[in-house]
Amino acid sequence: MLDFIRYNEHLTGTKIGCREGDCGACTILTGELKNGMLNYSSATSCLMPLGNAAGKHIVTIEGINLEGLNVMQEAFTEEGATQCGFCTPGFIVSLAGFCISEKTPTYSNAIDSVNGNICRCTGYKSIERAAATINERMQQRNGKDSLEFAVENKMVPGYFLGIKERLQKFSLPTNGKDSNGMQAKYLGGGTDLYVQQHDTIVHEDIDFLFDKQHLNGIFKNANICEIGAAATVSDIASSLVFKDHFPKLDEYIKLVSSTQIRNMATVAGNFTNASPIGDLTIFFLALNARLKLVTGNTAREIYLKDFYKGYKSLAKTPDEIIERIFFELPGQNDHFNFEKVCKRTYLDIASVNTAIRLRIEHNIIVDAGLSSGGVGPIPAYLFKSSEFLVGKKISSELISELIALAQTEISPISDARGTEEYKRLLLSQLIKAHFIKLFPALPLEQVMHL
Ligand SMILES: Cc1cc2nc3c(=O)[nH]c(=O)nc-3n(C[C@H](O)[C@H](O)[C@H](O)COP(=O)(O)OP(=O)(O)OC[C@H]3O[C@@H](n4cnc5c(N)ncnc54)[C@H](O)[C@@H]3O)c2cc1C
Ligand code: FES
Ligand code: FES
């Protein structure tokens, strides 16, 4: 998408920084119709496959210029929030996304919209002040239609009001057949593939999975949650099913990449990339998720915990597509927690991450799942530790024994994210964190000093 914008369309306001999704200089907005509603979300165009733009409104910095400065540009100028200006188009586009989103306008949401944008020279205080000014303007929206308000208030140009009608005129096949057996490469959001295989992937045959209807949606059937494989991290973050069953969802999601990447990154992409530190993989391993794999007319199911055979080696043939993911939603007796430690808190991959699920009936653990990433060649489901918990009562002694057992199940190596010893220590501390957060009545001092 970035190359198309700059070299085909000659729209050079969108900048090239890292080409790896890390800096946000290339941020664009994509507008699409979902259930008859027009929604805009931000994306890093350097990682966005051009094929994923089909049927959408792509907005670059040029597309939000007005006669004179728009509200975001005005705020940046007044607050001195730009110096060399290289990062500025990315920030302005992300903030335009905030202005036209249906989310409640709050300072925190304004800041979240730019959490994937990096500035090397201004210092973030002036950018934060500009975001605060923009948020103040948004306070006058008072339930008004977000696009109408943004147009009236010089945030985006008037042509935005005609986009819904223009998109309705497209008739795109949403149920395109999968290319099983045709050797085409499967592609979700592209946030792994375009980083890892940037030079070769543009020449390959691609099966674009991102917008296929049968690979999307998040549903609840009784106590089972069913997720389309191409659902994104942002889809999970906004899903009422997830919000209902994971009270700390927002805290977990904030630890995963950035707003732009979350809008593109799919669940199946995370699983298939098989990174030992994939956050969604660790999250769903503890939930004992099942995958539906499909090839041609054949379908089979496999537990996520049985999906990883060795480093980047999967229990799946190359032509099998992950179609759906299932897991049992946590109920009243269930306790779930996710923890992640990185070198920096946000927009970073984990040194070690871990998730736990415990079902407790009459003070006894009757079912458990413990997973951890960054502690071996594959995203690890800690089989022995999970089994060990069943039939036990929660106590500091139990946590101590669990930590000792978990240490026998892992094999971390020293690398850029920490030494072997550090990662072992991290897992022990994060297991304590699980119990401290889930059972605040536990004697904290005792657990901390285990
Ligand atoms: C800047 C940046 C920050 C990141 N931060 C994090 C982070 O904090 N935590 C984290 O976990 N990850 C992070 N990632 C990694 C990445 O965003 C995730 O792994 C993401 O979920 C990958 O999904 P995708 O749809 O983009 O995958 P793609 O790149 O489209 O595909 C990845 C692999 O999955 C395959 N695939 C995709 N869908 C299917 C399917 N339905 N069936 C079979 N195969 C399929 C593809 O063929 C490919 O092999 C980050 C990436 C970037 C660039
Ligand atoms: S160029 Fe840095 S995120 Fe795209
Ligand atoms: S103003 Fe120079 S990088 Fe942000």
Report on this structure.
With 450 residues, this protein is α+β, with helices and mostly antiparallel strands. The protein is 34% helix and 20% strand. It is built from 19 helices and 16 strands. It has helices at 2-8, 71-78, 88-99, 107-113, 124-138, 146-152, 163-168, 193-196, 198-201, 233-238, 240-245, 249-254, 259-262, 267-273, 279-286, 383-389, 396-408, 420-438, 444-448, and strands at residues 27-34, 37-44, 57-59, 185-187, 206-208, 218-221, 224-228, 290-295, 298-303, 308-310, 313-314, 321-328, 334-342, 350-361, 364-373, 380-381. The chain has a five-stranded antiparallel β-sheet, with no helix packed on it. Strands 13-14-15-16 form a four-stranded antiparallel β-sheet, with helices on both faces. Strands 2-1-3 form a three-stranded antiparallel β-sheet. The chain is globular. The protein starts with a helix and ends with a helix. Bound molecules: flavin-adenine dinucleotide and FE2/S2 (inorganic) cluster (2 copies). Residues 82-88, 119-122 line the site of one FE2/S2 (inorganic) cluster.
